[in-house]
Design goal:
The complex is a heterodimer of chains A (312) and B (296). The relative contact order of chain A is 0.20. Chain A has helices at 13-29, 32-58, 65-83, 87-109, 114-134, 136-139, 156-178, 180-190, 192-197, 202-228, 238-251, 259-272, 280-294, 298-306; strands at 145-146, 230-231. Chain A has one domain (10-306): ABC transporter involved in vitamin B12 uptake, BtuC, CATH 1.10.3470. Chain A is mainly α and 312 residues long. In chain A, strands 1-2 form a two-stranded antiparallel ribbon. Chain B has one domain: Orthogonal Bundle (ABC transporter involved in vitamin B12 uptake, BtuC), CATH 1.10.3470. Helix content of chain B is 74%, strand content 3%. Chain B has a two-stranded antiparallel ribbon. The longest helix of chain B has 30 residues, at 61-90. In chain B, 51% of the residues are buried. The chains are: A mainly alpha (312), B mainly alpha (296). The A-B interface holds A 59-61, 63, 108-109, 111-116, 118-120, 122-124, 126-127, 130-131, 133-134, 238, 242, 245-246, 249, 278-279, 281-282, 284-289, 292-293, 296 and B 35, 83, 86-87, 90, 94, 96-98, 100-102, 104-109, 111-113, 116, 222, 226, 229-230, 233, 237, 262-265, 267-268, 271-272, 274-275, 278-279, 282-283, 294-295.
Chain lengths: 312, 296
Amino acid sequence: MGKIVLLKERSMYITIILLVISVVIPPLLKNDYVNSVLVSCLLWAGMSTAFDLTAGYIRVTNFGFAGFFAAGAYTSALLAHYFGVSPFIGMLPALLVAAVFGALVGYLTLRVHGIFAACFSWFIAETLKYILAATPEVTRGYHGLEVPVFFWIAKLPYYYLILVVYIVELIILLKIVRGKIGFAFRIIGEDETAAKTIGVNVTYYKVLCFTVSCLFAGLLGAFYAHYIGMLTPDVSSLLYTIPALAICYVGGRGTLWGSLPSAYMIIILFEVFRPLWAYRFIIYGILLIVVMIWAQGGLASLIRKYIKPKSL
Amino acid sequence: MFPILEIIIASLIRGSLYVLISASLALLIGMISVSSFIHGDMAMLGGYLTYFALTQLGLDPIIAIALTGTVMFFIGCIIEKSLLLPLRRISGKLWMFNTFVFTLGISQILQNGALIGFGPMFKGVKSLWPGEVNIFGTTTSLDRMVILISSITILILLWAFLKYTKLGRAVRAVGINEEAVALFGVNVNRIYMFTFGISGLLAGVAGAFYMVLFTTYPLVGVTWNQKAWIVITIAGLGNVKGAVYCSFILSLIETLAYYTLSAGWQSVIVIILVILILLFKPTGLFGTEVKGLWER
């Protein structure tokens, strides 16, 4: 799966360049449609970056990722709907609920083989969906919960909000990953027995990794709720996990920065070739198969081929 | 009065549908360590194949279902040979997770392909064997009884195949230690292909039965897949015998939940049960008996 690059690598500049372009483009173009496309690019990039923390580092593919996303989304939405809490404040409980939820699920399942964590969190997400659908008095079920939005004006403020969220997320995650904790994550992913042998508390680090990943899922969920303005229980289904998963795998697992170019590529592809939108899940499926057989490293390894990382 | 007999019969019939699909999934996990996500969609394909065999070709029901089983066997073989074998060559320890994600991709293609190819309509047939059966004063349709009996027959055949034939022994041996089996001169790749085919057959027949009793539609596989995985998790991954017991346990619990709770909550109850089991016995009820390849 390629070299392990622990220090700063030059190939990451491609994400930084993309981010700089992202800051500059919207005020230049002044096009609301472009802004909304960019918002969804950044939202999915953020999702798959958080997904990548578990999939690429401790090597646990979290199939119930959408569940934590939905937990955050519904927490913030219900608070705003019933108690009139400002969406900006609502993001904090959303993130906490998702993190606690993630810690519980992680603690329950990560002690055994990772495959249990994967299918168990998937069950949890599906259960959340059923519960949300079965309590229409509170959540309005499939009628859709109306959520107050952040800003009543155009998409531009949303765009800068999600940009800030994404940059903060990326910086925090990169800081975690490049420190001592990240080393523990990586070694657990490579060889769990070896990690135990050198005295790493495997369960603690696994749960920590899972929790941080779920925390950001909750945060992005809250953003999504107040951006879309309407929530249905389907937020918690596999339909919301698959794009994050596919973008993460296409971008390259275990890089964190690979998700942004991949999200831009895939979502802009769908926008440019509009008829493809109906077949998007087929395309995600094909992308997954192609990436897993022929390009395990994803986009990141392709970029690394041309921009050599600095050696240790 | 609480209709005990009705509940037992209903849960037996429900269980006879679950048991085929979860046994096929357990076979895959236990023998060749593939954590498959496409079983529900194989069942969906099986349902559609039987539907077309019955309505378009006008075949006899038994022949139609047998034909479906054969076709699904070959579809399973093709999927293993063309897609999973190349993946097997490149993934080492991550094989379990890789197959999980990889088959998720295949399942998306199958589901959405079916949605485009067959349309979103529900497809079903009129009862194949009209008539009713009376068991101790409770009447059930003949269809259900035929399906119950035939799925139990299929299970017995599977057990006999695994236990007494040379090929079945080879499949079980691959489940225990594939390298040693390869040293004894067994073509391991062929065993992989064959096992995947058998599990495709079981899933396809399960889907055909479901189509006969209810209907089939492109996303029917989502529920199937989930049910199969719940059974497998309760039973302990890769334990075929445990999966057989647990699918009847699950169906009993679900039927009870149907009788006592309002719709929508029975799935919640089942998952809470799974959580409790995982809390106290993380490897499942029957998990200690069989240790999959992925655990070593």
